Amino acid sequence: MKLRSLNARRIGVLMFSLCIFGLLTSPSMPAEVKFFEEPVVEKKVAELPSGPLYWRLENFPTLAQAQGAAGPTSLAAEVAGKVWLFTLGPKDGATAGGTKVVEIGPLPIGTPFPPLNASEYLLRVSHAGGVPGAKTPIHMHPGPEAFYVLSGKLGMHMNTGVFYAEAGKTVVGSGIGDHAPMEVFNAGTIDLEALAIFVVDANRPFSSPAKPF
Questions:
Q1: Are 5 and 70 within one domain?
Q2: % helix / strand / coil in the chain, to the nearest 5?
């Protein structure tokens, strides 16, 4: 009887351990869903254009043509199956040979917004997105981030509220550094794909953790 009772206890412990292992390894356990942001092209410049600033997005037939047409504050890249020229400058600009897709702005720097003063500026374009539920940590940049949504629905949580943009639309971060924490996320039911475009102080950390809203 004692042997049988001991074996029963051992079997019970084994079954309990297997159950715990199954729970820990079950595919139904929620896992962290990451938002990806992969730099595509960047450059540093000593000064920014004056006046209200916009990002102008244009398509070109070839990367060589886009690069040949690029100005001092332009970035040329092939991403998401198209050739793009991203130009930081005044509203209603145009580049010879390009097809304008959209203008994003005004960016919250310079007139009539507070200036972004730096000895050097970093311009960067990233390919960004993720599956439904993907989100970034709460973070901040030393300059404004703007998005152009290629597919899906993007959400941006800032201290001024939560903003959304669907395919073909844009959204701009609200400011710089400590005054502009943000969390970016896939707010839709399909995979999100977007272009993230930055102009930041090149001498400060590109991204830093921020306090919860």
A1: no
A2: 15, 40, 40
pLDDT at 17 over 50: no
Residue 3 in this model has a pLDDT that exceeds 70: no
Same domain, 17 and 94: no
User: What token pair was written down for 155?
Assistant: 């959400």
Residue 177 has a pLDDT of 59
96 and 113 in a single domain? The answer is: yes
Residue 86 has pLDDT above 90, yes or no: yes
**Residues 6 or more apart in contact with residue 145 via CB below 8 angstroms:** 172, 173, 182, 196, 197, 198
Q: How far is CA 16 from CA 11, 13, 133, in A?
A: 9, 5, 33
At residue 20 the predicted structure's pLDDT band, cuts being 50, 70 and 90, is: very low
If you average pLDDT over every residue of the chain, what do you get? 87
Shared-domain flag, residues 95 and 81: yes
Beta bridge partners of 54: 89
Q: List residues bridging with 37 in a β-sheet.
A: 128
Domain residues for the domain of 102 are 36-209
Question: H or E element: which one contains 196?
Answer: strand 192-201
Categorize the per-residue pLDDT at 111 as very low, low, confident or very high, splitting at 50, 70 and 90: confident
